[in-house]
Amino acid sequence: MSTLTLALDLMGGDYGPSETVPAAAQALSLLPHLNLLLVGDIEQCRDLLDAFSLSKHPNVSFLHATQSVSMAESPAFALRRLSDSSMRKAIEAVAAGQANACVSAGNTGALMAIAKHVLKVIPGIERPALMSCVPTISGGRSVLLDLGANVNCEAENLRQFAVLGSVVAEAVLGMSRPRIALLNVGAEANKGNIPVRTAAELLATTPGLNYCGYIEGDALFQGAADVIVCDGFVGNIALKTAEGMVRLLSSASHQQMKGWAGWLQSWLTRFFKRRLSHLNPDQYNGASLLGLRGIVIKSHGRAERSAFTNAILQAVVEVERQLPARIAERIDALPLNRR
Amino acid sequence: MSTLTLALDLMGGDYGPSETVPAAAQALSLLPHLNLLLVGDIEQCRDLLDAFSLSKHPNVSFLHATQSVSMAESPAFALRRLSDSSMRKAIEAVAAGQANACVSAGNTGALMAIAKHVLKVIPGIERPALMSCVPTISGGRSVLLDLGANVNCEAENLRQFAVLGSVVAEAVLGMSRPRIALLNVGAEANKGNIPVRTAAELLATTPGLNYCGYIEGDALFQGAADVIVCDGFVGNIALKTAEGMVRLLSSASHQQMKGWAGWLQSWLTRFFKRRLSHLNPDQYNGASLLGLRGIVIKSHGRAERSAFTNAILQAVVEVERQLPARIAERIDALPLNRR
What we know:
Chains A, B: It is found in: Cytoplasm. The structure is a homodimer. By secondary structure, chain A is an alpha/beta fold.
């Protein structure tokens, strides 16, 4: 495999092929060197593939899958019973070396369970984490994890997430000595629950990590830290709350006025939207399942084509930066297993 | 005690008397029938009290306290060692019937510990919760709890929070059969951690509660539910994240331009702020410690005078609606203790 190939799960997400197929075409037009392995019910997608000139595209190959994983499916069922699902076959293509990474907008729990089973975790990592590079108000980026892969975490898991996030901050965002913070309910040392307080002690004594303390929810997106660590329950709700606020505030919620006032109103709404555009969740769609021996990108289930394209681009960056190898190297150098 | 009297902790919060004293004056000008018991280091506050014409105000009395609880103090230390703190004496004034409610911008953990010890909880309630009536995009309100009083919760605690929140929705917001939701990482039944999933089962089978299922972070502030229940760790971070977004988006973050462009820019910034004004956290400052045999309102530690005034007004509403009595009545009628 000399060129860069991505396996795309065509069937995942709320919209399935109607958004993933156009996104594939968009990614190919942006990156002509890219190769795509499209995984799903190819017959069902035929008309869309023809419409977007992908059926006979030289950079596109196909892998037929008879099943798909629904959003409500239990991870255990998806793992044990849906062995011919598009999600499973896309991940297996990565394990078999047919693709450098895979991208899916499907069920997060199922993606996590199948990826962990098929690809295995990097030695020293107990649990993979879902990570996103979120925008900051000043135009920068922060690494935020876990975003929902682990709804219960121990302190050691949080420490490992800090290591994973630091490698991303260095390898993907080009930072040196990224500032690590734990998301907590207060800045003082006595605040928070036991896992967070214990993680603070672990992080402060782990060599090679630039741990800077706690930050609160209102400091997210302010660039107060480069790597922000929390358990998956909290991270998922914090990120979705912030995304919900951006969407609410940038939507034209006021009643449409008439005449010149209506013109002014729509102009102001556009101004408003542009001002928020760099915080738009679509811009940074594409969360990474970190800690695996392969690259798996999770797109938001409600992603439309341009957002799904951004998830594809995130996969390309991680392949180019050889993220799993860099994580393995760093984990190997750290005394993480001396608990 | 025939009139309405509130005990104010003058020393709490990041700014102490410099904001609480002006807020007291503002509240008295808004509600001339209100009586205030100002608790703190009265000598230290003398100049401010004179400046705001409160020293000899007919509706104002004073209670001197030699100690104050700092924001970094441990709740246990504040409870056991600071028996002459302004926070403690303000709560004791409620217990003694000298005041109908108290308001403090001080350390949340200490306020919770002292209030629970001095006022006691309503029978049937295991743990009080911190609740706020947050705005929705359409101009309504939702009850959100817990906001940080309990960083670890079991399912039964979450169920009790749902009952507390329902009473507030009915008594304060005037709703009938308020819709109750649990904040979770997904809408499907198999999502979330054990306490949340178990709470969902409990809520669905508790008579008299209108439980409607899970909502995700992006549905907060959309009015998707009237009562939104979560543990204090998650609620604190979700609310602060949302508040941080509103502050970020309404601040003039762009570089100031010159000439007519600068004029247009500042005009647009004002437009932007006005559009967000009903989501401004200051508008709904004043979280209630629910489940106690008395009314305790927690103001945000960073509250300035007008925000602290809103916390005082929240206390007045809860006194008028006799919230603790209504909660006790509801708890008594529910089979909450048959675990």
